[in-house]
Design a protein that fits this description.
Order of helices and strands: EHEEHEHHHHHH
Helix content: 55-70%
Radius of gyration: 20 Å
Shape: elongated
Number of helices: 8
Strand content: 5-15%
Oligomer: single chain
Number of strands: 4
Strand order of the largest sheet: 2-3-1-4
Distance between the termini: 30 Å
Length: 263
């Protein structure tokens, strides 16, 4: 058994991680360990590294082989089950708040909440993709990724259209109480998700990716809360529309990355 280290500068989110996993599907690999913060991938394999190196290079992520050395792999089935349970909890929390934020955002006329709900849906899609794709064929994984990506892009385009309409017609400001209260609860939910993920103390790819996603969500939540405060101070709907636009852009970028998985 060998362990080969790759440095991949353009690997900075779960989309690239899943892209690499699918690209390497079918090759003689025992395990993949990702470190998104350091842009590093460790591949555990038995055979020649050349086909693996070639496959990764074809993704045009700037990959470079760092080193190869002998290693042993110990798979802890119980730990994997614990990780799956945590990911299911995080998935359910994200999807639940997607529903809550989308409904309350529509009722309160807050594009910030609606946009944040799509971000929660984007995260839930990534978690669901990782869980649902386990043990399935490479083609099935790509089909799942393509569907998830197109759904997110469709919702983001609809959101952009609504933001533009509200800019043009200068509609009434959002209902602040609902906007801020729901944003605070979403912030708490994401904090709980991050706590659960960190509690796992896992260095494996999908868990680290989930931590990064959830950390970004907390920042977005703070942005929505800030926008609500500015709406109150300025008595204008523009801060809400601006934060909504920013989040829609982030959702679109994430959707494009997910669509790459289907190619």
């Amino acid at each position: 058994m060998f362990r080969t280290e790759f440095h991949i500068p353009k690997m900075d989110c779960p989309a690239e991680e899943n892209l690499i996993r699918m690209k390497l599907d079918g090759l003689s690999i025992s395990r993949l360990d990702f470190d998104l913060e350091k842009r590093t991938l460790f591949v555990y394999h038995d055979n020649d590294i050349a086909p693996i190196e070639k496959a990764i290079a074809e993704l045009n992520l700037g990959s470079a082989l760092v080193s190869t050395q002998e290693a042993q792999v110990k798979i802890d089935a119980e730990d994997h089950q614990r990780q799956r349970r945590i990911l299911w909890i995080v998935l359910l929390i994200n999807f639940s708040f997607f529903i809550v934020e989308s409904i309350t955002g529509y009722i309160s006329k807050s594009m910030g909440l609606v946009a944040d709900s799509l971000d929660m849906l984007a995260d839930a899609s990534v978690y669901a993709l990782s869980l649902f794709a386990v043990g399935r064929s490479s083609r099935r994984k790509k089909n799942i990724a393509t569907i998830a990506g197109y759904v997110q892009i469709t919702l983001a385009i609809a959101g952009f259209s609504e933001v533009l309409r509200r800019f043009i017609f200068n509609e009434q400001i959002p209902e602040l109480k609902t906007m801020i209260i729901v944003s605070i609860f979403t912030f708490i939910a994401n904090g709980l998700c991050l706590f659960l993920l960190q509690k796992s103390k896992s260095n494996e790819a999908h868990m680290k990716a989930s931590m990064i996603f959830t950390s970004n969500d907390i920042i977005i939540n703070l942005g929505v809360i800030t926008a609500g405060s500015l709406v109150y101070l300025l008595q204008s709907s523009y801060p809400d529309l601006i934060i909504g636009t920013i989040v829609f852009i982030l959702v679109t970028i994430g959707a494009i990355r997910i669509l790459k998985l289907g190619k």
